Amino acid sequence: MNAIEKSVIHDISLAPSGRQKINWAKDHMPVLGRIRERVLVEKPLAGKRVAISLHLEAKTACMAELIRDAGAEVVITGSNPLSTQDDICAALVSEGVTVFARYNPTPEEYKSHFIMTLETKPDLIIDDGADLVTILHSERPDLLEQVKGGCEETTTGIKRLLSLEKSGQLKFPMIAVNDAFSKSLFDNRYGTGQSVWDGINRTTNLVVAGKTVVVIGYGWCGKGVAMRAKGLGARVIVVEIDAIKATEAHMEGFTVLPMKEAAKQGDFFVTVTGNSKVITKDHYEVMKDGAILANAGHFDIEIDKVSLEELSIQSEVVRKDITQYHLLDGRKINLLAEGRLVNLAAGDGHPAEIMDMTFALQVLSLLYLHQSNEKIGAHVIDVPYEIDEQVSRHFLESLGIQIDELTPEQTEYLGSWEI
To answer: What processes in GO biological process is this protein linked to (predicted)?
Structure first.
């Protein structure tokens, strides 16, 4: 069967619209372009099948097609039910990529798409949130034998993988792409910072300047969200459990408060923790009328939706991607994108130039893993520094930016203990 016959998507006739989006993104992803020039000749993944679980939008499609150009058969599914773009799925299928995904599937359909992806028996995987890995190890161990390893995109996924490794149950190597410098410093900070506010602004169409924004979690993603909120003219409050990160937020000029106090002051709330129930009943009870809640963590568990529903006498969709909850005392609380990733469920995700670096890391890490999986063993490892540095170097070159190099004398000095 060809890709069209094997795939499960919404509508193949949407392919031309998806191709326009992919071509636009590809024109702004020069690092992937450099890698494509090499793999088109070498075909390093010839004869291999690669399964991908990521947000299915234009930038992801560029990476999927690059892996196909490297010789692999590519199978892809979405890592979030509201971030999948049906026209992108159609465009990929029309170019020979097998796709199991559609926008807003039922929970049962969403789970089945993961299973169908894994039942193609991939040799390598690219995961987002460790969903594929978790299903392989818990529900479908019969499919483990073929998999030689994979790469993980997110902080949440790496936490799950490290837990799996610590328990001694991880069966193949995984590369922690999220933790690479060229990912965490740029994608998590600048990408998340811009795309979260893009999602919030286009969804609410409200001014941010003069408002109070509460950022819950001050990791690299939280830093980006807080930085961009400040740039939009907001007063920013940071909520943290880590004293070092809280100190950094204070030094950056942000107010640091416990969540119970911040809940009384916020106009916008953005969760960026990777943890569950960081906004709960206690916080809803003291929030302002009209408060707006958004999540920028991987799963829709950071905002306690069950408690919000229990406190409400009515809920209604008042605008695309905004559900308004009416509380007994007359206050209204607005939840964006059902508490899912607001930058992708209610926006187009990170800018193309940012994802260019991240997906270049994914591709180069996948090629490294393909060559070295037996040597690595069943462990979670960092992206080799040479790959990390190569991606940033390619990015600078694409902008025409040059940097200095050490002279032989300087190299010798830095390698010696003598003055």
So the answer is: L-homocysteine biosynthetic process; one-carbon metabolic process; S-adenosylmethionine cycle
Q: Is 219 annotated as a binding residue?
A: yes
Q: Is 96 annotated as a binding residue?
A: no
For residue 140, the tally of other CB atoms under 10 A from its CB is 14
**Is there a binding annotation on residue 171?**
no
Residue 419: is its pLDDT beyond 90?
A: no
| Residue 350, marked binder | yes
Read off the pLDDT of residues 361-380 as tens digits, 9 standing for 90 and up: 999 999 999 999 889 999 99
Reported pTM: 0.91
Q: Do residues 319 and 374 both lie within one domain?
A: no
Residues 6+ apart with CB under 8 A from 136: 118, 143, 144, 147, 171
The CATH code of the domain that includes 341 is 3.40.50.720
What are the residues whose beta carbons fall under 8 Å from the beta carbon of 378, sequence distance 6 or more?
165, 170, 171, 172, 173
139 is annotated as contributing to ligand binding = no
Q: Is 60 annotated as a binding residue?
A: no
Q: Do 366 and 314 share a structural domain?
A: no
